[in-house]
């Protein structure tokens, strides 16, 4: 048995904390072997219990003596065999039955009854029995909710159900797309960290996301509610944040990256963490629903007024917060000011200082640039008219800021021309209608914005998205997912195999190795007249392994002579550049070490240290 006495005291068994009168002889936790469970009460009322996660009723088994609890994994898969999207879903996203028996915990729920009437609340305790469950290395989230409310034909929020059968030909039919209080479920959340029960509390559960609800494994939104017993999830899920009180959390399925790696969005947001952009921390967990293994999810923060209130020192009296999803959808306050600004842009020449200043007074320019570059670099399609979130506080001179989110289709399409996407001016449909690209196209008319954008792009490509940095991040994340991926794939059939998952990771790394220069080339193809300020030189990447790119300043004209010296002062390469802006050196044959690049063009001279990897 693995269980710390501190958790035992914490649990004891939460019965006292919740005013319960049923006591369990064994606490929740992980056990290698079968266990004998006793239920006791100081009251005269009989105990009824269930072993399938359902609410006990007066017709449930009556407790009369100790219960032997065994590893349930060899038993039928139960709810794991319930199809969670329609049979005509595209093959790549279609629900697939589990391969073999999925892991299962033993969930024991007990309550006292006076006749047919329950006395007090239901007590739920669970046991993860057997060596297979003991091998789970990730933190574990267990959710209990009424099965009919999750998987029942009429009310089940996790299945196509009645709503799909009644409306199979509309856009996004299915019970899981329904909204409103009648589609919210009360549930119990348990969090195990290092095999120890760290937190257990009731909460409200609902579906989360947009089109990703169609995927077989779905994202879930968790909301702590005071009237259910706890107004926050009090635990340091994301220790790097130094924040332990979370009003809402999300168990994300990885969006459309569910069929590839599960980690594209997590990867991008982790890369953006040092940039000053708002981002959502994530932690990889294994989920069980009603005692059945549900695979790997990304436990993340959720953007809302509670998130923003916390990370801005609790000083926000009120905010505007809205999503762009082929329209404007406020969740707090209003988006009307932003909409009015966008509507005015066709009538404003932003090349002039006054018009540009008017827009700069309404948005944080650098924030917009950093966010925009992240979308271009990611190489995804689903943005500008979709998957954008903005906010501002109700304070004097407050400006709109972007929240980075939804990079589930990133790191795949190396050849994606983000600037063709971002400058389209004739679109009417998803994903980039004309009104959604209008801000970027208008701002690029102003020279100072264009130069600021180019400088920021070069900086991000050299730092945030430096190939080495991105590849290290991919390796670090993959190492977290990898030990559990085999079991996850047997559960869901996505991706096709562990080997395919590994191939997808290799594809991500290949993307990271080449994407920065692809983006730089695309930018210069679309905006060839934007030059760096006089005197500014860019030599990158540095360190370098294959090709060195050199941007010369506008002050340089005509031919530029270059020479390369090794650490001993010996000349190893020389030549002439005639391109006034971007030049390259192939360094593949250089040995590893330190070199000096010397450039002379008229009165311009540069000596730059270069490291060959």
Please characterize this protein's 3D structure:
By secondary structure, the chain is α+β, with helices and mostly antiparallel strands. It has three domains: 5-144 and 156-180, no CATH class; 317-530; 533-613, Immunoglobulin-like (Sandwich). It has a seven-stranded mixed beta barrel. Helix 9 crosses helix 12, helix 12 packs antiparallel against helix 14 (498-526) and helix 13 (467-492) packs antiparallel against helix 14. The longest helix has 29 residues, at 498-526. The radius of gyration is 28 Å and the shape is elongated.
Characteristic terms for this protein:
613 residues, 7-stranded mixed beta barrel, 26% helix, 4-stranded mixed sheet, elongated, Immunoglobulin-like, alpha+beta, disordered N terminus
Task: List the topology elements.
Blueprint: H1 5-18, E1 23-24, E2 29-31, E3 35-37, E4 39-40, E5 47-50, E6 67-69, E7 106-114, E8 117-129, H2 131-134, E9 140-145, H3 147-151, H4 161-166, E10 185-193, E11 196-208, E12 219-223, E13 233-234, E14 245-246, E15 248-252, H5 264-272, E16 282-289, E17 292-301, H6 305-311, E18 319-324, E19 328-332, H7 336-344, H8 353-360, H9 365-378, E20 388-393, E21 401-403, H10 418-422, H11 434-443, H12 447-462, H13 467-492, H14 498-526, E22 538-540, E23 547-551, E24 560-565, E25 571-577, E26 582-586, E27 593-601, E28 604-612
Parallel strand pairs: 2-8, 9-16
Antiparallel strand pairs: 1-4, 3-6, 5-7, 7-8, 9-10, 10-11, 11-12, 12-15, 13-14, 15-17, 16-17, 18-19, 18-20, 20-21, 22-23, 23-26, 24-25, 24-27, 27-28
